[in-house]
Amino acid sequence: MNLFNKIRGQHRALEMLHSVIDNNKIGGSYLFYGPEGVGKYTTALYFAMAINCLEEDKPCGTCYSCKKFLSFSHPDFIYLFPTPNMKFQLDGSIKEEKFLKEYESFLASRRQTPWNTYTFSQKTELRVDAVRMLIHRISFSPNEAKYRICLLEAVDLMNRTTANAFLKTLEEPPPNTIMLLTSSRPDFLLPTILSRCRKVPFLPLSVIDIQNELLEEHGVEAMQARVFARLASGNMEKALQLLESGNTESRADANELKELIVAHDDLGFMDFLGKLRQKPPSWLYEVIIHLQISLADIAFFEHNQEYLVNIDRTHLIEMMYHKYPNIDENIWEEIRFLEDCQKKLKGNVNSQLILIEIYNRFCELFC
Amino acid sequence: MKFSIEKKDLLPFIQHLNNIIPSKNTMPILTNYLIKADENENQLIITATDLEITVIATIKANIMLGGKVAVSARKLMEILTRMPDEVINFIYQEDELLITSISAKFDLLCAEANQFPMVPDVDLADSVAFNAGLFRKMISSTSFAVSTEINRPIFTGINWTLDPEFQMMAATDGKKIAEFTHHKPTHVTERIDCIIPTKGLNFLDKVITENFDTVNVLIEPNRVIFSYDSYLLMTHVIEGRYPDYNKAIPKNNNSILIVDKEHLKQAIGRVSLLATEDTYKIHLSISNNSFIIDCVNREEGEAREKITEFTYDGKDIEIAFNYKFLLAIINVIETPRVEFKLGASNEAALLFNVDQEEDYSTRFLLMPLRLL
Prior knowledge:
A: Rossmann fold, 5-stranded parallel beta sheet, 5 strands, 7% strand, elongated, B: alpha+beta, DNA Polymerase III, Chain A, domain 2, 3 domains, 8-stranded antiparallel beta sheet
């Protein structure tokens, strides 16, 4: 099976790559850019496999070349990603045991669950010693591949010196060497890097694409798939992360908060406030996002039911809608209020106060 | 796959190949040997690679059933080292390599052989033959001078020049130069220059013995292949043009010092005990009737030695060197006496063998350190 068919929603990017492969006009450097979680890395990997695939239907994913790519053991595949300072040696070794372990578990996580964000023990960026290793490795001729592939993930996480060290190689890669860069923040790249790449655009995924992927590839129940697809806001990684953590905690908490608001249960709310202490700082932030989505749901409830996100909670939406039927006139004000709360949170305002403010305001609205 | 071989026939190869295996590499498959059993030829083909250098050893063995397997290099060597001296049987089935002797038995889990980097075919028909002993001497006389600095890859290799009339190896790191020239015609038809990484050459230096005296060399555009005895070594060459170090070699060094090598070596060894660890500096004062080596270490004290047997013809001179570099050069001087050609205190010194009657010649250059 052609692996490109597994990529959803990126017709423009795929069209471009297909024409490159079909006409065998393979350029030196490509930049895959677009929002997070839409398949930039996966497409880049499949593109690398397709260029070197030994079968007719490229990339097949089953020939030995494709297999080596998929297991990151291809000698002509150099994969760089943001890491802590691991002190990469030129020959590709990492002397410190701890970092080598981290490196290996990152790759293992990439192989098995590419949608998960692997967290390193320290601050990550694309390091200059990794780029030096790449430059050293490509100074030799390719080992067995038709085209040697260098895949650099999140190139925006490269500091200026590293970028400049990399520039000359990017401009004139050695023969039969292809640079694939991915970035979700192309605005942060040096113009000198941008101008040296052919750009492959990636778009946010549609709800339908995410829903179908969840249904067909991950065996998710129809209802759950609908909800997650809508919650993910065009980000496949997020949808899968939601799926892994089940019904996310913050979403359940947001629902609990809504129920408290509707019932105007002040005592219950005091208990809820107590939760705040055990949660990470990002928790309230996520709860607010869910509240925003719920507000939209309430506004859509009467006329546009197909847009509902929390379709598994329609009874709550309905209840809230009936308490405040003309919400659609004032919704922007409420959304802005919540956005304001998020800003305050980021500005280190006491989160308990923010939560109380939200509760009081919404109680007035939905009473 | 199934074969048996005596421990003493296999272990030396495995030990040599182990030098190639990278440690702590980010590509785990490289820490394996690829072992191929060839039923028709009745031989084992063992490959080790770090992607820069690939070494293939071909060993006679009793092959019952052909096949191939990738097996952890470290574990295999450790197992073999501890095995009793007898015939060892290897059987590969269902991802496990079974290693048995009469008493001991190991089951080693193996990687998939197909994951191992492909080894390109080599046709040695156009290769050129060289004398192995000489080749080894060329390597050991020059390899100490290569640079370990990674920023300038060109200095991390030895420059090998092959000319129909002569051949030459040279190495430098900007502080010292070593050059070895063999003045006999070679079998090449036109001049070739290539810069070979030292790792590959050092491997050859280790495996070359007196038992087998020809190295076959095949030079391709971006790699060089050496074949010696049971080994086949492929190394990438370093791209670029080797800098013209001849410009750095002084022409007017007229002060000539000739001194006994062993004597000098021991004197340096003693004086250097007090050399500072940041510069390794020792200081030589030479005039027609005295030759003193000393070194001053502000924190620890002074050392001083007078050398009595020497001949010197030239102006009085004071000059300082890094003693590690100086000893490295003296160590590869072959004659009992060593000749220095000196200019001024801030000019490079040249070192030679004295009265050597061979068909090859060497010269070494060492940059001095600042006197103060």
